[in-house]
Amino acid sequence: MSGEEEVVSEILKVSRRLQKTVTSDLDGDQLSRIALKLASYKVTLGGFVAEARLSRDEAEAQYLHTREQSYKTHRAEGKAIGDSDNLKRIESEEEYQAYIKASYNFERLRNLHNDCHDMIDSVRSRLIHLLGERGDQNG
User: Fold this and answer.
1) What is the residue-wise DSSP string for 55-116?
2) Nearest to 98, CA basis, from 50, 53, 52, 62
């Protein structure tokens, strides 16, 4: 598993499988494999979440820097505060859009990372329930 989108795609496949399957139809071995897969994907995804956070923070810093430099330049040229303020927004639009995209990607990955945790907990709960039932039948 190498790329971010490949990991995301695999997690979504597991999620769709769980949504389409009645969990009572899955045996303990299948549930264990699913939990292990999700845990592995979650670890890999964690690295991508950290990278996405860094990208978001860098994009925000670039946006703020560009915006403030633009404002400073226009004020030094003698433009009024209102004009300088409007021009800084126009001139930093590209950086702002990059920041929005980086923020979206970070939130998307962070939410999926959290969702993996929830799916693992659900699978684990079902597995514990199955083991309990098996123990009741044997006891």
Assistant:
1) HHHHHHHHHHHHHHHHHHHHHHTT--HHHHHHHHHHHTHHHHHHHHHHHHHHHHHHHHHHHH
2) 62
Residue 21 in domain? no
Q: How many CB atoms lie within 10 A of CB 1?
A: 12
Taking the C-alpha atoms of residue 55 and residue 57, their distance in angstroms, rounded to an integer, is: 5
The reply to whether 118 falls in a domain is: yes
How many domains, the chain? 1
Range of the domain at 82: 4-16+27-138
d(CA 94, CA 114): 30
Give pLDDT tens digits for 32-60: 999 999 999 999 999 999 999 999 999 99
Q: Give the orientation angle of helix 4-20 with respect to helix 93-138, to 10 degrees.
A: 40
For 68-110, write each residue's pLDDT tens digit.
Answer: 999 999 999 999 999 999 999 999 999 999 999 999 999 999 9
Q: Does 22 fall in a domain?
A: no
Answer for the pair 28, 120: CB distance below 8 angstroms, yes or no. no
Confirm whether 123 is domain-assigned: yes
